[in-house]
Specification:
The protein has five helices and five strands. It is an alpha+beta fold and 162 residues long.
Length: 162
């Protein structure tokens, strides 16, 4: 073997040893980090199954939410998560409403979440629908004599006409 091949083999062995050492250091770092913050990650959860919430929290309060729609749930989850409210939502399919369970000590936090949700839903109601926006665009296009889009809701395919 010539000197160049020997040097290449030594370099490869050295790279393998350095990689193994780096991997061991990283593994130890992540193990220690997991031990330190493992409990904190679980505590950040806000939406629980009812049986888990009963095990974790005492003095649960129950509220029937008849005005909460399925499409409003995303907003509710975001606001509750932001506030750190631990809760459980159970849907009653017979009455088509949700039952909301939370810790009685969190009543002030629930009031805040309810107010924020109401504000967010009011803002959504103020926004014009897509149909209204399209009608307004057609009206403006008639005024400037530009080609307009005929929207057939049944076919859902715009047609260009003059």
């Amino acid at each position: 073997m010539n000197i160049q091949e020997e040097n290449n083999q030594k370099l490869v062995r050295l790279n393998v040893e350095i990689s193994k050492f780096s991997l061991k250091v990283l593994m130890n770092f992540f193990k220690n980090a997991k031990k330190k913050i493992g409990t904190k990650i679980e505590d950040n959860k806000t939406n629980y199954k009812l049986k888990d919430l009963v095990k974790k929290e005492k003095n649960l309060t129950k509220i029937d939410l008849s005005n909460l729609k399925d499409n409003d749930l995303k907003d509710f989850h975001l606001i509750a998560k932001k506030c750190g409210l631990k809760y459980s939502l159970v849907k009653d399919t017979e009455r088509n409403m949700y039952t909301f369970f939370f810790n009685a000590k969190s009543a002030d936090m629930y009031n805040y979440v309810a107010k924020e949700l109401e504000k967010r839903l009011d803002e959504k109601m103020k926004l014009p629908s897509i149909k209204e926006q399209m009608e307004k665009a057609q009206f403006i296009s008639k005024e400037i004599n530009a080609p307009k889009l005929d929207i057939n809701i049944e076919n859902k395919a715009p047609k260009l006409s003059r």
